[in-house]
Specification:
Three copies of one chain form a homotrimer. Chain A is an alpha+beta fold and 355 residues long. Chain A has eight helices and 14 strands. Chain A has a single domain, classed as Hotdog Thioesterase (Thiol Ester Dehydrase, Chain A, Roll), CATH 3.10.129.10. Chain A starts with 19 loop residues before the first strand and ends in a 5-residue tail after the last strand. Chains A, B, C: InterPro entries: HotDog_dom_sf (IPR029069), MC_hydratase (IPR048274), MCH/BMMD (IPR052342), Thiol_ester_hydratase_Rv0216 (IPR016790).
Chain lengths: 355, 355, 355
């Protein structure tokens, strides 16, 4: 008997401007998630793995890695937003609004803030602002992404084109900084880093030495942990007949790998306050070795905080090639084939003088 | 100096009718187990990953996935029961008696309830009923399985043949349903499912779209987490000289994969109440992509519960082939070579009308 | 703009006798670490996975596996000590001073206790004593290791040669045994072992039957969990141009595999009190299947404890070869090519007579 119980998911014509979609599977963060995140990335930031260190800078308990929050929240949007996506086109205005700790439960919803059918009539771009709230209904993360989504019915009428205005970056006075965050007891022995906010110069480029090879199970475990069910990461049988002939690595894996690899040189970057923009320039596959370099885009003072500053950074992920060997990330306006990530983000860092 | 400290384990002639075997390694469930189970399966059932959702349906704390309980309990029986098994022949009368949460400790024992030497004189079938109890000595899981076990001494006398009577299924009035389970606040936004008990029809077949490729590390990690030490899953050197030339995937991995893959279409199935019967129709190996379809076998009302019903389901696991392409699971009484699992189980689901 | 933010790490000429190096990233142990350790090794010792069992032998809460403590503490020393190592030459005087449980935070430091430049002038041997303390500043682990480290500047002057005196083994009266450890309720059903201290004979060799194939993700996950950032374990791109052409497995993975594999035959070995000496005889790679045998080197009574004894054991790790097939671990003073580990360590075990 034919069943009506499965759905092929939303196609472009199913999205309506301004509608709000509540995503399934609220998720309580556990100590197991934190340990797995370390095992998957090798992250060494003491804020996320040392309770005494977290307490020394004012937290009641260690917050989880900002990117773990991002991936778990993001994963919940996939079944409703991007299950029929042709491509994830970009991120903007990603704001980390409040720290998340073990025991917190995240619930996520998305609002459609833009629609534009492509001229081929076969697909279109959907813009959503997603928000994840904790069990107290406080927003912890808000972000915009836009994806190209297939039409199921080519004859479905095109919606009115609406393209949201998005900020080029989250301005310094828009960053959410916990009032309790204090740097008076900041212990650089715990981070292993000797450089503070003042030590970074706009234009400075840090070629991080370490590389990380992505194994097949690594990325599968991570993506499943995030309950991100995009088929192209899990289903080798399906992907045999795709352009690439094999599974793709979830782009968030690359972001986390680059962030962990860039620890050396950015040890005192306490947390991520915002992601301003992001592009997955080329796909990654199991077996690729990821490297990264960081470029300092800007250095901002923060309102009412003379102990803490912000650094706007560009983190470029490169596969199978040392960052020192890559002079230009783009050639004729298109990315070098080994560039896999171009992310513009903002971190908080203690100031040497006033902490 | 020759050591007497290792044992080659029990062979067929070492089992005695009615004897009780207490298995080693009591196991306390942790938040780490729960996170790993999500990472290994991609399970999205909010009952197991959201404390607020679990509380909204009456649980004091989120219960772990029923299959995680099963695998951990099952694993403890392997060193004593099936280390010299030729094959796991089947399961029956698997009853989930009480939810298990983080902090509970499971201890498992088995009673031999049947013995039958095969006519070749080289092996025989052992039937055991295994029971796992929590730290309060309350049974949480009880199941029967039968395995074909090698004889070590072909001249050992055959035991009297005893074949236990096993129920074809666990009847509705035998299902254990927590008295505190309540569906009044059941939130279908949390599950993402719109279908309730009344919406399912006997004979209905749901072809679940998602597939999951089993990586080598995935199944190794899972089987070790369950402390199941069956050599054929871990020892590639040993398995080179086996019929298959490589490691086999623990059958429980396939059960969990199918259960997670069948989430879409069964979102409101709160928990598993029983496994009525199960067969691993063909072996699986790393690299296989698992798909599944579900057939609704029956729909039962439950005594004293008009807010909740039971669905008896058949979950068929298929490798490297879309379920929609498989019309018949058997040909001439033997399984299609791509069918890897045929499981008859019972879930609890809220009733639309009375919840 | 050239950045000064990354460092190529310490070379031989950067170590000074007696200097103390405080390592970054204090680490709070979580339930996630414990679950991952089981998933990575298959360990079945109930002391580490059953709260009731741990309490039955006097612990307030289950201690983590001694080797998990070792790997996490060891990992912290890598960025400062061995990032430019040619080879890890050995361990000695490894003392497990106090049990570690979930919630404890480990901080690690090292003192340089010996230096010897090699006659080639290109590298030298650095001896360090490392100590890990918990959040109460109580030492939980202390160990000596020596590594051969590259010189960066071949013209840097050689330091005065100092070679520390190291004990051949940690003597019985030097072992740290928790005063609260009690064996009166020791439950051999929980361990599955029937042999006690008195049952082991000096010279006895136990060939453990089980083997464990190391998958690529397994060892990567473990090494990252320990926050050990030695590049040769993670960076396949880099290692393509190495002697071996591929990534090496962190030696600690092999130690843990052997310890878990040797459970059968040593079930009642409660905990590790010391590692007396250790050598990684040959490298291991993903795909290798690890086997092990144990030789009883000595059997010691313990001062003031007639319920507990110590066994000094030799644990030999072998790859891709059954232990029963290896008569001699060395030929002409060099290790058989399949021998990967030769570890001399001491365990505590209840005495049959007096427990």
């Amino acid at each position: 008997m034919q069943s009506n119980k499965t759905s092929s998911g939303r196609f472009f014509e199913h999205f309506t401007l301004n509608e709000v979609i509540n995503h399934a599977t609220p998720r309580t963060i556990t100590a197991g998630d934190v340990a797995l995140y370390i095992a998957l990335t090798g992250s060494r930031n003491p804020l996320h793995c040392s309770e005494p260190f977290a307490q020394s800078v004012g937290y009641q308990s260690a917050p989880i890695d900002d990117l773990l929050t991002f991936h778990i929240a993001f994963g919940k949007t996939v079944p409703d937003i991007s299950v029929n996506a042709v491509a994830n086109l970009g991120y903007a205005d990603v704001r980390f609004l409040q720290p998340v700790s073990v025991g917190d439960t995240l619930s996520t919803s998305s609002q459609v803030i833009g629609l534009k059918q492509n001229s081929n009539g076969k697909n279109g771009v959907v813009y959503v602002r997603s928000t994840s709230v904790n069990q107290h209904n406080q927003p912890v993360l808000s972000w915009v992404r836009w994806v190209m989504v297939h039409k199921n019915d080519a004859n479905a009428p095109a919606p009115e084109t609406t393209i949201p205005e998005l900020p080029a970056f989250v301005a310094a006075d828009q960053l959410s900084i916990p009032a309790y965050l204090t740097t008076g007891n900041f212990d650089q022995q715990a981070t292993g880093g000797q450089f503070y906010w003042e030590d970074y110069q706009t234009g400075e480029r840090i070629n991080h030495a370490a590389g990380l090879t992505i194994n097949q199970s690594d990325h599968s475990l991570a993506t499943r942990l995030y309950q991100n069910n995009a088929r192209l990461h899990f289903d080798a049988h399906l992907m045999q007949s795709s352009t690439f002939g094999k599974r793709l690595v979830y782009g968030g894996i690359v972001i986390s790998a680059c962030r962990a690899l860039s620890y050396e040189g950015l040890e005192n970057a306490i947390s991520i306050a915002a992601i301003n923009a992001g592009t997955h320039a080329n796909p990654s596959f199991a077996g690729d070795t990821i490297y990264t370099f960081t470029e300092v885009l800007d250095r901002w003072e923060l309102p009412n905080r003379n102990d803490l500053g912000a650094l706007r950074l560009r983190m470029v992920g490169i596969k199978n090639m040392n960052p020192a060997d890559l002079a230009e990330t783009k050639q004729f306006n298109s990315y070098h084939p080994n560039v896999v990530l171009d992310l513009d983000y903002t971190v908080l860092m203690p100031r040497k003088g006033n902490k």
